[in-house]
Amino acid sequence: QMDRLASFGNDPFDKPPCRGCSSYLTEPYIKCAECGPSPFLLCLQCFTRGFEYKKHQSDHKYEIMTSDFPVLEPGWTAQEEMALLEAVMDCGFGNWQDVAYQMRSKTKEECESHYMKNFINNPLFSSTLLSLKKTKDSRFADGHQGRDRILFNF
Asked: Alpha-carbon distance 32 to 59, whole Å?
């Protein structure tokens, strides 16, 4: 049970279901910023309908949960940035063909120029992005110690 919680990845079965209709959540979905400690999550349909449950009110503050937004430049989502960093770590710097194969969504030229422009000239940024990722994942880990296992979990 603990393990399922720790690997809060892209697999829809890893996320808790919508509190409103119990469907599996796909991004973007809504997280109530006021209900807790366990995340109160709603799909967009239930959120739009103004779903309320026990303490949860429809006028609560909320966060839109998604990793599908541009961070550094248009055309590259946060998810793709993480995938690029992971692919470069897996394949080794300079192996752009393999990196692109692992990425699937970008050509080797796109991977190389994006990486050189955003990460090589900005080493600080890549470590910031990795620590952000770590923080985000360990929030869901609920005190679980296997943090390394979830560091790069898409």
From this structure: 10
Residue 134: the pLDDT is: 56
Q: Tell me: do 54 and 74 sit in the same domain.
A: no
pLDDT in tens, 30-89: 889 899 888 899 988 899 889 999 999 989 888 878 776 777 777 888 888 888 988 998
Total domain count for the chain? 2
Predicted confidence (pLDDT) per residue in 79-111, tens digit: 888 889 889 989 998 999 999 999 999 999 999
Can you give the residue range of the structural domain that contains 61?
Answer: 15-66
CATH number of the domain bearing residue 84: 1.10.10.60
Bridging pattern class, strands 41-42 and 62-65: unpaired
Please tell me whether residue 114 adopts helix, strand or coil conformation: helix
Distances (CA, A) of 107 to 86, 103, 110, 111, 114: 16, 8, 5, 6, 11
pTM, two decimals, is 0.45
- Answer for the pair 70, 77: CB distance below 8 angstroms, yes or no: yes
C-alpha to C-alpha distance for 139 and 65, rounded to whole angstroms: 14
At 26, the amino acid letter reads: T
Residue type, 70: P
